[in-house]
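Example 289, ligand zinc ion.
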Amino acid sequence: MLVTLKEILETAEGKGQAVGAFNCTGLESLMAVISAAEELNHPVIIQFAEGHGKLIDFDIMAPIMLSFAHKATVPVCVHFDHGESFDSCKKAIDAGFTGVMIDGSSLPYEENIALTAKVVEYAHEKGASVEAELGSMYASEVGAIEPGKNQELSTEDAYTDPDQAKEFTERTGVDALAVSFGTSHGVYLTKPVLDLDRVTLIKEKAGIPLVMHGGSGLTTSEFQTAIRNGIRKVNYYTYMIMEGGKAAADYVKQADDQGIYFFHDIMNAARDAMKKQVMEEIRVFALEK
Ligand code: 13P
Ligand code: ZN
């Protein structure tokens, strides 16, 4: 069943867990995520990142994602990830998405507030919820959604400031806040150094569900400390889609013996591998592993 971001995060808050938010760039990843959540009987967030429009059109994915969410046996939020403008967030809300992220993190602080507040006003009027971002995520160089973004910033400038998070939340009325504490998108080129205590401080001040971006590549214990400290949504894509890619490559290697390649079998091998990976992560985020 389709639910809002606010609803799904409130349930997670009550249980002290995080909900997995997986980016869907095709039917295989979408089917993998929904069937993983259904098999475990856990809520899930399926999301489409604006930057992934270069891989597949929003207009193709949006109605399919909403249809899967409506039919699912578990609560599903359909979320727009890393929205770059008021207009793109409005388009997602008008299409029926129940959550949008407006990513004004690279704007000057006051401009981020003004843009976020404008999206919140529109979204709330239409019954959708809003995630915003404060602080800057470093982008690693392989597979990042936003390559090269903010790499010139020092750690102090990049990480979210707890007092600013409180003010930002009060002035914008956002439902969830993406925070920067050392994670980054894509494949980590060096081991990330996480400031997990910062999550606790931000949570105490801001008092709303916090979001971790760049989930791929963290250890179970890093995830679970972050969740105990206040993370309620974990964004995860790179390692899921690489798992699919590896399964497809293995399938092709086997098929090489006979030289017979059925594309549907390659896609199904990828889908099954992604489902397995997503199931593992959902259990980690629910503190079941
Ligand atoms: P990863 O691809 O690093 O898992 O990050 C996903 C993400 O943050 C989507 O917004
Ligand atoms: Zn992200």
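Summary: Residues 82, 145, 185, 213, 235 surround zinc ion (ligand 2) (CB under 6 Å).
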